[in-house]
Amino acid sequence: MSKPLRxxxxxxxxxxxxxxxxxxxxxxxxxxxxxxxxVPHWKVHRAIGLTSDRLLLWLLGHRPPQADxxxxxxxxxxxxxxxxxxxxxxxxxxxDDLEARGVPFCAVTSADPQTREALFRALGRELPLAESPKxxxxxxxxxxxxxLRKLDLDPAQVTMVxxxxxxxxxxxRAGAHFI
Length: 179
Description:
alpha/beta; four-stranded parallel beta sheet; two-stranded antiparallel ribbon
């Protein structure tokens, strides 16, 4: 007799479970402008979901000498706005439902520890977290593969839920379903 197939869920945290995209786009736009880089809002918005280094490379075409200062300024200003963050509509109910039904899940995020704490505060709870190497962020498959290992499931048994094209690309590369 074969055992039933288990399913699990991987969640992007920043922008998916917590409504934070607007804050990130607003802050990145202003930080870039303050440092002499005029990048249209739409392009900044499109880049949200990438790690800071990849975001700068995608937006500017290179890693500028002041990249560390840009990243630090973004982090600081974003954390100043953290009290305004809210859970995405339905996020808490979804997590409660998955727990009640015994469906395993975890967060797959490249957010730094301070940002992650702010996001968990906004969500009103912490989630199990898949740790992945910082040098291999989304849209690479490695973060999703770390989530698969955390849940001890095969890619065909897992659905990744995210808000950015980068989440979808990572899930596809790892062989997981994506919503």
